[in-house]
């Protein structure tokens, strides 16, 4: 049987949220904002992040998030992602630092920020950050810092205002260590397809066409030694606007369902087959052998605090399946990191490459493996592997 390894895409969802209690201070105004930015630069240089830069549209997005999310609620991933997209910040990987503090004594806040920043900057090479401060009442305020990882230089094309066959240019450059760019899109009808591009080294160029009213989801993928990575994931409106967020997204906090590993894997299978059923596809059957492989890979990602397809110890998804002597004609793998099963499935379906795997009619079996990591504030992050085959 012919082996075809495809759709090996990674997605990082979820956030690091660190709360700071009352007694820390911040003086409102430009000077105080500048002091926060300066302290972030100081810590980033100490951590070796010489290119970390404040980006005004990230700060503007952070301010919009604080306007939407009430005091006492950690901003959901979907809210931050939506506001970043509205400001044309296309990179899908971000992290937040959230602090509540008394409005007086700015020096205390700056000092307390350093250990939070040391922790947040410790495991990734962040490229952009934004800062927002908003009063809660006459005595207290909130600070939100959003960090954004980037492996690409790309400016999304402007929204199309009318249907047309005229090409709209799309071009960019993937940054080291990434190479071999490719572009996928989901059209307004939910169909996933590759976008033809011309590649010159790390640069690529192609074009979009506004042929159907709605939202086109564009994804740029680059290769590294750890496999494919999603470097950009954004929406291109065609005679349409981004829909409003559901009111429940920013409502009161909902208690996280603490499922067992087996329960979490079962819920992910239910959500996956629900989405297949909604597209008129047969459900995938759960394969215990694939689940064992997938769970071991998720456990390795937790140990290394990273999401990757190519492991230095177990190799590629194809290597892992071959060692288990599982016959197949196609292998595909989806990865996700998210706080809940629902958030993971939503994010995967919003990604053209991951969506293509979930809705592939030729696939017949899946293994789903979950491993968990507790965040500093006691919430749980899920590391998820979906391993698909067709026999």
Please report the number of helical segments: 9
Based on secondary structure, the structural category is alpha+beta
What fraction of residues sit in β-strands? Answer: 25-35%
Low-confidence stretches: 1-30
User: For the CA atoms, what is the radius of gyration?
Assistant: 21 Å
Shape: globular
How much helicity do the residues have?
25-40%
Number of strands: 17
Question: H/E element string?
Answer: EHEHHEHEEEEEEEEEEHEHHEHHEE
End-to-end span in angstroms? 9 Å
Keywords:
391 residues; alpha+beta; five-stranded mixed sheet; four-stranded mixed sheet
Walk me through this protein's architecture.
With 391 residues, this protein is of the alpha+beta class. Helices cover 29% and strands 32% of the residues. It contains nine helices and 17 strands. The strands form four sheets. A five-stranded mixed β-sheet has the order 1-15-17-16-14, with helices on both faces. The radius of gyration is 21 Å and the shape is globular. The chain starts with a strand and ends with a strand. The model is unreliable at 1-30 (pLDDT under 50).
């Amino acid at each position: 049987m012919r082996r075809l390894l495809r759709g090996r895409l990674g997605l990082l969802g979820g956030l690091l949220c660190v709360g700071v209690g009352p007694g820390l201070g911040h003086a409102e105004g430009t000077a105080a904002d500048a002091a926060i930015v300066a302290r972030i630069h100081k810590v980033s240089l100490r951590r070796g992040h010489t290119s970390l830069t404040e980006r005004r549209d990230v700060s503007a997005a952070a301010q919009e998030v604080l306007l939407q999310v009430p005091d006492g609620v950690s901003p959901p991933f979907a809210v931050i992602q939506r506001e970043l997209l509205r400001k044309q910040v296309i990179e899908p990987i971000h992290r937040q630092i959230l602090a509540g503090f008394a409005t007086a004594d700015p020096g205390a806040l700056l000092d307390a920020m350093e250990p939070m920043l040391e922790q947040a900057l410790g495991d990734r090479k962040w490229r952009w950050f934004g800062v927002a401060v908003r009063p809660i009442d006459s005595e207290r305020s909130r600070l939100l810092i959003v960090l954004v990882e980037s492996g690409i230089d790309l400016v999304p094309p402007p929204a199309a205002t009318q249907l047309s066959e005229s090409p709209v240019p799309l071009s960019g450059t993937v940054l080291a260590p990434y190479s071999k760019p490719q572009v996928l899109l989901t059209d307004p009808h939910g169909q996933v397809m590759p976008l033809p591009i011309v590649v010159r080294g790390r640069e690529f160029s192609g074009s979009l066409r506004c042929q159907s009213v709605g939202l086109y989801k564009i994804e740029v993928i680059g290769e590294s030694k750890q496999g494919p990575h999603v470097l950009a994931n954004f929406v291109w409106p065609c005679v349409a606007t981004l829909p409003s967020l559901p009111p429940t997204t920013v409502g009161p906090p909902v208690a996280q369902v603490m499922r067992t590993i087996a329960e979490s894997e079962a819920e992910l299978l239910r959500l996956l087959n629900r989405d297949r059923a909604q597209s008129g596809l047969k459900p995938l059957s759960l394969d215990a052998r694939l689940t064992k492989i997938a769970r071991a890979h998720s456990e390795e990602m937790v140990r290394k605090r990273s999401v990757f397809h190519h492991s230095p110890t177990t190799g590629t998804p194809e290597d892992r399946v071959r060692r288990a002597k599982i016959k197949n004609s196609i292998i595909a793998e989806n990865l996700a990191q998210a706080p809940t099963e629902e958030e993971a499935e939503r994010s995967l379906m919003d990604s053209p490459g991951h969506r293509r795997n979930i809705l592939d009619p030729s696939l017949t079996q899946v293994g789903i493996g979950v491993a968990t990591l507790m965040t500093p504030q006691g919430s749980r992050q899920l590391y998820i592997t979906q391993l698909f085959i067709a026999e």
